[in-house]
Amino acid sequence: MQGYYYLLLFGFLGLCTNFSFGEYGDGPRYDSTAYTECKLYPEAPLYNGGILAKEVSKHPGTQVYSPAYVLRNLTKGAKYTFSCWVRIKGAGTARVMARLLTDNSTDKCVGTVSAQSGCWSFLKGGFVATESNSVLFLQDSQQRDIEISIASASLQPFTDEQWRMHQEDNIRSKRQRRVAVHISDAMGRRLQGAIVTIEQKSKAFPFGSAIAKTILGNQPYEDWFAERFNAAVFENELKWYATEPEPGKLNYSLPDQLLRLVRSRGIPTIRGHNIFWEDPVYTPSWVRNLSGNALLQAVNSRIQSLMSRYKGEFVHWDVSNEMLHFDFYESRLGPNATAYFFETAKRSDPWATLFMNDFNVVETCGDENSTVDVYVSRLRELMDGGYVMDGIGLEAHFTRPNVPLMRSILDKLATLGLPIWLTEVDISKTLDHETQATYLEEVLREGFSHPSINGIMLWTALHPNGCYQMCLTDNNLHNLPTGVVVDKLLKEWETKEVKGLTGDRGSFDFQAFLGEYKVIATFGAKTVESSLSVCQGDETLHMIIPI
Ligand SMILES: *[C@@H]1O[C@H](CO)[C@@H](O)[C@H](O)[C@H]1NC(C)=O
Ligand SMILES: *[C@@H]1O[C@H](CO)[C@@H](O)[C@H](O)[C@H]1NC(C)=O
Ligand SMILES: *[C@@H]1O[C@H](CO)[C@@H](O)[C@H](O)[C@H]1NC(C)=O
Ligand SMILES: *[C@@H]1O[C@H](CO)[C@@H](O)[C@H](O)[C@H]1NC(C)=O
Ligand SMILES: *[C@@H]1O[C@H](CO)[C@@H](O)[C@H](O)[C@H]1NC(C)=O
Ligand SMILES: *[C@@H]1O[C@H](CO)[C@@H](O)[C@H](O)[C@H]1NC(C)=O
To answer: What spacing in Å lies between the alpha carbon of 287 and ligand 6's midpoint?
Structure first.
């Protein structure tokens, strides 16, 4: 490792530039700008280049032909966001990876871009510095000998406090709204000193978890779930192998029971997971045996049976699960099988949002099959083909999250303007409970505060013999550290009961998380109870209660 490090340093000596920097002040606001189209000219660097600014200004025209930066005096623990424009020569297209090499560890991916010759593509990524000296370099992922040009490079550090502040800003503007409750008498006169009590009845942001058949008949678990979550997804019970283990032997008994349970508890958001799964391992064994017309018939009857039974029941369908990694159906039915699935699903259940769903998109950038640009181009392909593709599912099965990378990937996905969900959040069971909890909190805060995330699902269906990767509680529903984190955030992301008096203008103001409210106003002997719906908006929401 050491040898490689020095070799790299040495090899790049002619091209590299050395950077040194000490402390930084308050720092700028986070810049969420991102591009996913290839441009004739690169845009200006974010943050004027940040701590790479000196270099950029030395090269007017912003073009720096250098595949590596030697970074000295990085602040350990600080979050760094990196971006640059990339163009290649010597190949039509290439997946270019930004890697960070430190003394101590193997190099890791901190950003990727699908680059082209003839135009500039935007790479955005980031990392948490673990050492003060590192080398950041760009490389073709297949390590071919192609020329990589970089322009408008930028590296901007943020402290944890600054990072948290960006999250809080976004939460205030996207998940909350200011509300002014005006109390007046029958003549329209403002009433000072009226007592206003506000109670949040429901939350607008869908936050839920997977459940499994283990919840059936387990009343304490059911209560525990319903007290916390407003969204649910069935872990395995809807999958083809579960509903049709043998050809023609359809059995929807478990999903039916789960659906009834969730409905009876008033949980509004239920994801349908999934119609097809491209991984042959999870394809029913009898389907794995089919090809050609027989397969097409099986596929048609699956989609027909599932969607007619549950039309209108599920808000989402994961139509083609993990298609960035596997291609069971496309390899047998042809390259437009996926488009066909989406089209048929749309026809069968026009009101459901149809999702692609995959792993290793926000979790890492080291998986070549599922880099953000690969995902974007598959989505574009479908959309350009005229198919309705309306949701981006990110499984979010993390080991150690790289939060700056996660944010920059979300920034890029957001350029498509589609709803994005974290669909299966958990932290690897290879880590101890405390570490899982710490990482889970990082991921959930990043997800909840990113303006493009529309909902979050945990992959934590309770199983007596252990959950998939991570449980929230033990079998007696006592919180594990991860459950403590979830309960803490659920509390933090709801409006505490608010009580106060109207001021001299007859109004009472408060900051509300989006959702449904009960508002009770009392003046003298009179009490009026109203409901209030707080939906997203940039402006203060005004409510008038005559009393
Ligand atoms: C790195 O930082 C240390 C302490 O902040 C400082 O003394 C040193 O001069 C810096 N090194 C360089 C090369 O700037
Ligand atoms: C290398 O990693 C080990 C273990 O993670 C750590 O104790 C050590 O301080 C690190 N060395 C440097 C130079 O950062
Ligand atoms: C359907 O599934 C349920 C639950 O697994 C099982 O109890 C039942 O026997 C099945 N029905 C048939 C006809 O196989
Ligand atoms: C697959 O097909 C072969 C040959 O027709 C048959 O012997 C086998 O039982 C099939 N396997 C399954 C799981 O249906
Ligand atoms: C990437 O996809 C190809 C084709 O589907 C597959 O053969 C390969 O195993 C995948 N790699 C990973 C890391 O999933
Ligand atoms: C799939 O592709 C074939 C040939 O390219 C075309 O005839 C067919 O209409 C396509 N099907 C769909 C659903 O787009």
So the answer is: 22
Q: What is the mean predicted confidence (pLDDT) over 492-516?
A: 96
**Residue 193 shares a structural domain with residue 122:** no
CB of 113 closer than 8 Å to CB of 153: no
| Residue 263 forms part of a structural domain | yes
322 counts as catalytic: yes
Q: Tell me which ligand sits closest to the C-alpha of residue 339.
A: 6
Q: Could you report the per-residue pLDDT of 380-403, keeping only the tens digit for each?
A: 988 888 877 789 999 999 999 999
Same domain, 248 and 341: yes
Residue 406 burial (10 A CB sphere; 0-12, 13-18, 19+): buried
By the 10 Å C-beta count (0-12 exposed, 13-18 middle, 19+ buried), 423 is classed as: buried
**167: in domain:** no
pLDDT tens-digit readout, 161-186: 999 999 999 999 999 999 999 999 99
- For residue 522, the enclosing domain spans 174-200+495-546
CATH, residue 378: 3.20.20.80
Element containing residue 447 per DSSP (H, E) = helix 433-449
**Is residue 138 domain-shared with residue 180, that is, in the same domain?**
no
Can you tell me the distance from the alpha carbon of 163 to that of 413, in angstroms, rounded to the nearest whole number? 20
Q: What's the rounded Cα separation, in Å, for the pair 424 and 253?
A: 24
Q: What is the pLDDT of residues 198-240, one digit of tens each?
A: 999 999 999 999 999 999 999 999 999 999 999 999 999 999 9
The 10s digit of each residue's pLDDT in 88-98 is: 998 899 999 99
pTM for the model stands at: 0.91
Closest CA to 521 of 507, 540, 504, 538: 507
> Which residue owns the Cα nearest ligand 5 atom 3?
325
Q: Which atom of ligand 4 is nearest to the CA of 289?
A: 1
Is 424 among the catalytic positions? yes
Pairing of strands 453-458, 420-427: parallel
